[in-house]
């Protein structure tokens, strides 16, 4: 039973990267809270989707974990005390480390964890476990966009401008984002854009609810966005629409990029993508004619084995036309998870230290080791990426602590990954519910949820927000920070893992100071009064002491840094301040259709379910709206294989076979089928997906593989 702590608590949704503001009001009688509109928060201005509205349902003891579970010798998960459970986890991890070395112990985190948790988890891996083997599910999410951002701009923040800029630009190209379903309150920014006379181009193999809003919808074959972007750049050059002044003043590397684009002539691009040349020309006019324009990408073009180059091609297009580093123009990536942005900045990534520092940079190691009070040489080096880490379970990595992900449902080639997880010597999972992955654990640690704890998240705009506690948690659960504190102590590290989130944030501020993602000027108190603060926000340097001879009044204390809603307006974050063109060329997806597997499979989301569904499949209202998996298929393909609407279809790839009912619609290309990935079992889309990795970002190719489709 919960105890409410205030009459009304202003906070944020537990789910996606929009981090909508909401108010929580205690229910009459005090058992839980209900969600109310919070009109003052600018991102969503009171609007919420069904997931946000129903989020309190997951707080109910009917669906959540209420106490620790430990697997008995007979193989059952049985209730245990916290002392027993934490002892078992510490012993399980330490035993493996002793027997096989520290790198035999792995840690897997999540982009839904608050900044404080992500920071503490990365520190726990390096300081308490001394392992290099940590990565997180954000590798499955936006790592390709992150890598392309770094390459071109020298800094990775999803959107370089606030969402409020979108309605005032001239044209938006939205590539592989179905935000009408994945961030419903953000659709408003696109409808306002059109009301203001701007145009919307949507690029998606399906005519989604988002594509229905577009002035121009291009439906390329999945996995061909790179060719499409190169074809558009070719036309831009051929039609003399480049911005030579901008290219000369603010970029480097144009000649090679120009040459690469010239090799992708429109007719070739039409053949690769299936998008007719006149549509390409139309897109170029819409994008180039207004005085400002934006390109926004999401998982469609990013979750490919060439995602980094694909995003790079869209960035090249922006740079060649002077649509970057200027007001109301630029390239942005719509991050996905609640803390998809902050979760990638503070050290749960395999190659990273807090503040978006590099683990291989000696200066960064010295700075962070100083904050942590350890010897820089004791910090391990970079580890494996998420899929490679999961693939090494049971062999090189023999014990795992998992916090904030459900890979049995969400990892590519999931049957193989499930088998790897089952082969571990020891698995501990901290979760709020008994997810499909938690059900395989040796120890399950039940943790508090959003409304029961305080912490910061960084939304898709780079706005650092405060989620506030509204309820006293039920007695059987602890916070993730308490879990890490309890484990570190048992591993012999008594200090450095505080349980108060604000104390962790204060340390994170210092650790991030001077890094690319500098949070040092941000405090809980500031976030409260400012509706969030955009990073980078360095703490102002203290004024130099005036020399005794200097006359006049004492100097003013340094003013607080205002935060940075808009990046790159004066200079890019590279050494010379110029954005870098990176020449890229089209290449095929890792798997292309052949006689045995003639159809393309792509995967994604529906509005009423979230991710692996661990949380939203426990909410009645959401299950009623989206009860199970399905296969979206074009009437022509359905007729060819003899499928009727609602009949079970088997989808078979080189990795396995999934079965789900057919949903016949002409809103999808005839050479492609689509499955949402929210469900386990027979209809699990990830049984089919291809773990081919992008060579730079190590992102798996969730968005395209070859399959055969037949009546089941
Ligand atoms: N309802 C709901 N909302 C969510 C989530 C959720 O699970 N459910 N998850 C959150 C998270 S973590 C994320 S990352 C975001 C994801 O948000 P989105 O990226 O909007 O979601 P997806 O459905 O994965 O993919 C978007 C679109 O890409 C298209 N697509 C598929 N293949 C290709 C291709 O090759 N090229 C192009 N251009 N498009 C392609 C799909 O048809 C789909 O419509 O959503 C966030 N919001
Ligand atoms: N086929 C296919 N597969 C995909 C994708 C796709 O488009 N297609 N998209 C990929 C993407 S973009 C993503 S982001 C991943 C997401 O996939 P997952 O990583 O599986 O994400 P979730 O389902 O959100 O899992 C989060 C888990 O942590 C728990 N949890 C929530 N909050 C907390 C917390 O504060 N602490 C702890 N300890 N636990 C918590 C939840 O109950 C849940 O079990 O899926 C990827 N998989
Ligand atoms: S759009 Fe995202 S943040 Fe907003 S209510 Fe829905 S799930 Fe929550
Ligand atoms: Mo994601």
UniProtKB/TrEMBL annotation:
Recorded GO CC terms: membrane
CDD domains on file: MopB_CT_Fdh-Nap-like
Swiss-Prot/TrEMBL keywords: 4Fe-4S, Iron, Iron-sulfur, Metal-binding
Superkingdom of this protein's organism: Bacteria
Stretch list, region Disordered: 540-564
Matches recorded under InterPro entries: Asp_de-COase-like_dom_sf (IPR009010), MoPterin_dinucl-bd_dom (IPR006657), Mopterin_OxRdtase (IPR006656), Mopterin_OxRdtase_4Fe-4S_dom (IPR006963), Prok_molybdopt-oxidoreductase (IPR050123)
Segments forming domain 4Fe-4S Mo/W bis-MGD-type: 6-63
GO biological process: respiratory electron transport chain
Gene Ontology molecular function: 4 iron, 4 sulfur cluster binding; metal ion binding; molybdopterin cofactor binding; NADH dehydrogenase activity
Biased composition (Low complexity): 547-562
Entry protein name: 4Fe-4S Mo/W bis-MGD-type domain-containing protein
Upper lineage: Bacteria, Bacillati, Actinomycetota, Actinomycetes, Kitasatosporales
